[in-house]
Predict the structure of Ubiquitin carboxyl-terminal hydrolase MINDY.
Amino acid sequence: MSDSNKELVDLVWGEKNGKGLIDSIFSRWTQGFVFSDSEPTALEQFEGGPCAVIAPVQAFLLKNQLFASEKPNWRKCQEDEQKDILCQTLCDILEMASTVNANSYCLATWQKGKVTSEPERELSAETSQPEEMPTALAAEELGFERFHALIQKRTFRNFSELKGFLCDEYLTWRNKFGVLLFLYSVILTKVCWITQKESVSSPALDSFYNQSLINLLLTGHAVSNVWDGDRECSGMKVLGIHSQAHVGFLTLMESLRYCKVGGFLKSPKYPIWVIGSETHLTVFFTKEITLVAPESPTEQARRIFQTYDPEDNGFIPDALLEEVMKALDLVSEPEYVNLMKTKLDPEGLGIILLGPFLQEFFPDQGSKIPESFSVYHYNGLRQSNTNEKVTYIEGSAVMGFEDPRLQTDDTPIKRCLQTKWPFVELLWNTDRPPSLN
């Protein structure tokens, strides 16, 4: 294994992980991007682990299929269309990762003719699926060390060259080690991650998913936090998300108050969200584009106010009111600020609550969100789907039921979505609600 490949392996797998642990994780990650027979635009996940790559790729694939395609039926997709949409999606993610590196791209491939010991398992132009699912067996055929010794890197200086080569290598992404090779391609393209300019606290594959890896695939930046902007913690600068993401991220952990997802991930450009549970990633999406209208003045004010409230207490010290008002381009003369302190904190507690602050400066402008709209949920694991067939679960979201007597359920997916829409109700077209695991 070359020194550069070893550096990549150590970053992804960790220097101290034992061989048994690495072999176990490696076997779970050994699969390509394979479309479901039951849902032509949905990717299948064979075992636990690679959802950290497959779910973000699925989210961007849906973005392209729903909002960049002119097809009337977005759920129908022929084999040639699957190739186009997958290649475009992989290129989109690589393009995000390359922005800091002056549009330089790097693809991880392998030396031709030395990888497949049984050619009959390769995909051909006439078959859309491998004859046998490439799970742990492929890892046993090649092995961790041998696989990484055969990796070679191809660099590209412009997007058209990248896309042309990536499409020529379509069968590579579909077969056996496709998910891992794409992961390595994103990391190699994102040079700043390898040089540690962005924070990676642990090996990328040390658990079911790593937030730095998820953020890299969703935003192009390998930061380990989900809040907006950077924060000072114990004298250290801790990096967060700096701009609105194309597809979003919500997590069940926020409903348990373990973290707070910022507006840049919670309110993306397209109504598609990767959903995180304790151990798995799925995707929630809708075609209702009004859900992600440009940030309103009220939403901007909430986001900026919360940057001065890193503990998510719902208030700030009154000494910070002037800074918040300046950040929002409000009148911030000392006399006026003192007047507002008295009005917003009549009891003299020394704090400014978020609710009264928004009501004073940004009174309710009326919601643009429709009362109800169609929604879908994707889970790539076969065993998490009815009859082990990977399909989208359809349903309806209904907004505005603040009366607890009108609540329909208390499922994990609903608790997760309530971190964005507190009064959402979900009605699914199936007997059981979607699984987040």
Remarks:
- Residues 114-139, 192-197 have pLDDT under 50 and may be disordered.
- The first strand starts at residue 34 and ends at 35.
- The CA atoms of residues 315 and 354 lie 5 Å apart.
- The chain is about 40% helix and 15% strand.
